Amino acid sequence: MKTALLLLVFISFGVQAQTTYDLDWEMGIGTNIDLTINVGDKVRWTWTDIFSHTVQSEVGSTETFNSGTKTGLGSSYIYTFNVVGTNPYKCGFHPLTMAGTITVENPLGIEEYSIKNFSISPNPAYEQLSLQMPNGIDIKSILIFDLLGHVIYSSHSLENTIDISKLNKGLYFIKVSSLDISHTKRFIKL
User: Fold this and answer.
1) Per-residue model confidence as pLDDT tens digits over 108-125
2) All domains in the chain, ordered by first residue
3) Which residues are paired to 77 by β-bridges?
4) Omega within 30 of 0 (cis) for the link into 124
5) Which of 15, 86, 87, 112 has the most CB atoms around it within 10 Å of its CB?
């Protein structure tokens, strides 16, 4: 019984796998050291010079963090982000040359991940556009927009092939919606 419970605990931790992102942290690295990560992910800043630095959240950051002063090549600071939001940060000693923003998002659900993986082919296309949808997606609508945002095609069911022969040459957008989730891709009509 204890073995089964322990196995269940290990499996549940494995399902919620987190990622550790590594950032070099040195004088003059820049002020756009930005990342977009998921809730529960970690960021590790590693000192790649011999100077004293800090990693600290700025005013307005969703989470508050501070490495304290660290000195030396190879020193590091790890922080786990647990709240959705934006986290501007800086070096307290060199704020004009060492800064960035960590943006934390919720991980995509299965439905959101799946709808982003629909594909269109060929692209560019002459007469027909083929749609390939991942299994299990309940399509509510398919819309095609021109560059001005006008809807030029609308369907409320999954059509694997769409006739685009009457469209003018140019760039278009196709939006696939499922419940409250949608994703847009672009295609070129030749």
Assistant:
1) 655 555 667 788 899 899
2) 18-105 (2.60.40.420), 110-189 (2.60.40.3080)
3) 45
4) yes
5) 87
